[in-house]
Amino acid sequence: MLDRAIIDAQFPTDLPEPEHWEQHYPPRQLPEGAQVTRFGPSPTGFVHVGGIYVATIDRDIAAHSGGVYLVRVEDTDQSREVTGALAQFARAFDYFGLAPDEDDGHGAYGPYHQSARERIYLSYVRELLRQGAAYLCFATKGELADITTRQHAAKIPTGYYGSWAIWRDADPGAVYAKLTEGAPYVVRFRAPDDALRQRIRFTDAIRGELEHEANRNDTVILKSSDQSPRLPTYHFAHAVDDHLMRVTLVIRGEEWISSVPLHLQLFDALGFPPVTYAHIAPLMKQIPGGKRKLSKRTDPEASVDFYIEAGYPAKAVLYYLRGLANGRLAELPLPRALATPIRLEECGVAGPLVDLVKLEDISADYIATLPGPQVLDAVRTWAGHFDPELAAVLDAERDLALRALAVERDGVDNPRKDLRKWSDFRSAYGFFFPQLFTPLSGPTDERLTSLGVDPSIAASFARDFIEGYQHLDDPPQWFSQIRELAAKHGFAPSAKEYKKNPDAYPGSLREAAQLIRVALTGSTRSPDLHAITQALGATEVLRRLRALSG
């Protein structure tokens, strides 16, 4: 074991003892049963929707237990940091209303970026070295590669452990010689001597009693001495931070289960009480023949930005995610489901499927409950970021937008559900706005082709409709104008009559009405035709009809 003076010489002379940090971050004064949870995003890529899923559970468990939910940015792997990742975190947390109780800027247990906590980690690394629970390792990349090659040849588990750990029990003189020549080193945790024969048992808050092989590897806990700043690996940083931030419950993906044995060894070596772990099943995607994990690389819907850019309402997404966590919440009305606590013991161990069709149904149902002004404000906010042209139109035509949104929504028992997300507004309502609508080019416009009406008859019908048009409030009276003109121009009174003798008519009453519909909306499918005319106003109705008349 190295002399304490040699160990201490590897660290700043003014580095505090662990007791300093214990006093600086005292136990929290919280009610009995309160949980302190943390979400630890890593800025090495985009925010996965699974992160929002876990953060939702983190926040909910803390809030309903009277505890604290904090966000700690785990940025010790700075070589892989992606520019803009932190801004995306902030955007996602803001959009989904997942602001933490503590993060950088507020909270007494910071800094909340691991890269700013170097001195804290160094205090505890030094203490493990003093105790002999860690050691300096000068193994080169070539030596480590050779160890792995020989282990493969021997068909034994790979890793840096036991007799393969060439610096584990090195002579202090050899260590001192390496230090004297300035050779770079890492600090490794000394796995317990009996780890090869041990199994670890622990209770997972979701999965119950679990058993796993003990960690055998002498894991790196402090990166190379030739780096600045000297940062720890994730495993060590999380153990120190969860203790000093007084975290009681760590909710994370099931891929971390295999790391629990190491983490428990670190807690034990550091003299910390272990936290409780809850390992969440990953979000899945249905594929032919089965399902797989929702992938960052291949699935656009894995990214949080997918939902923000498409304009899925945050509450609808949160409702959906909460239903994936606890199936009973999916059976409750949205407001009640958002207020009802999530229960860890009800989180399944099989990964729930992300079904965008189901999410869009939920989103459409939710939007249908909102008053027009609220929908318009949400669409305008979305458009301000992702559709500037639409944003400008909505600013100029707010009254028209509200009239459009009222069509088949206001005062009806079963409101329209044509908006599933804010980005649908242009396709569903764009025709209401002269700035976004392209009038017909005449009776031969291809948008009329499917009606099969002779262009000359279509033009004549439109001219007569314009000449006698009355902008009536009463729907049946208004529609009678189409009915009377259809008869005058030889259209069959019903589809049934037209079907009996199609050569005798240019179409049925339906085709006559569709001529007007396409002229006003550009499509054969639209909301109630009379309601559209009331929203557009007589002047705009006549302008569009003139385009049909040729």
Task: Please name the defining characteristics of this protein.
Glutamyl-tRNA Synthetase, domain 3; 550 residues; Rossmann fold; elongated; mainly alpha; 44% helix
In percent, how helical is the residue content?
Answer: 40-55%
Shape: elongated
- Proper CATH architecture of the largest domain: 3-Layer(aba) Sandwich
Supply Rg.
Answer: 33 Å
CATH topology of the largest domain, which one?
Rossmann fold
Mean pLDDT: 95
Give the assembly state of these chains: single chain
Summarize this, please?
The protein has 550 residues and is mainly alpha-helical. It has helices spanning 4-8, 18-24, 49-65, 85-95, 118-131, 141-154, 172-180, 234-244, 260-270, 304-310, 314-325, 334-339, 356-368, 372-386, 388-396, 398-406, 425-429, 455-467, 475-488, 495-500, 509-521, 529-536, 538-549, and strands spanning 36-39, 68-71, 134-137, 186-189, 199-204, 208-213, 220-222, 249-253, 276-280, 284-287, 290-293. The protein contains 23 helices and eleven strands.
Q: Describe it for me?
A:
By secondary structure, the chain is mainly α. The protein folds into four domains: 4-15 and 119-245, Glutamyl-tRNA Synthetase, Domain 3 (Glutamyl-tRNA Synthetase, domain 3, Alpha-Beta Complex); 31-106 and 281-369, Rossmann fold (3-Layer(aba) Sandwich); 371-426, no CATH class; 446-549, Orthogonal Bundle (Arc Repressor Mutant, subunit A). The protein is 44% helix and 9% strand. It is built from 23 helices and eleven strands. It has helices at 4-8, 18-24, 49-65, 85-95, 118-131, 141-154, 172-180, 234-244, 260-270, 304-310, 314-325, 334-339, 356-368, 372-386, 388-396, 398-406, 425-429, 455-467, 475-488, 495-500, 509-521, 529-536, 538-549; strands at 36-39, 68-71, 134-137, 186-189, 199-204, 208-213, 220-222, 249-253, 276-280, 284-287, 290-293. The strands form five sheets. A three-stranded antiparallel sheet has the order 3-4-7. α9 (260-270) links the parallel β8 and β9 (276-280). α8 (234-244) crosses α9 (260-270) and α21 packs across α23. The longest helix is centred in the first third of the chain and has 17 residues, at 49-65. The mean pLDDT is 95.
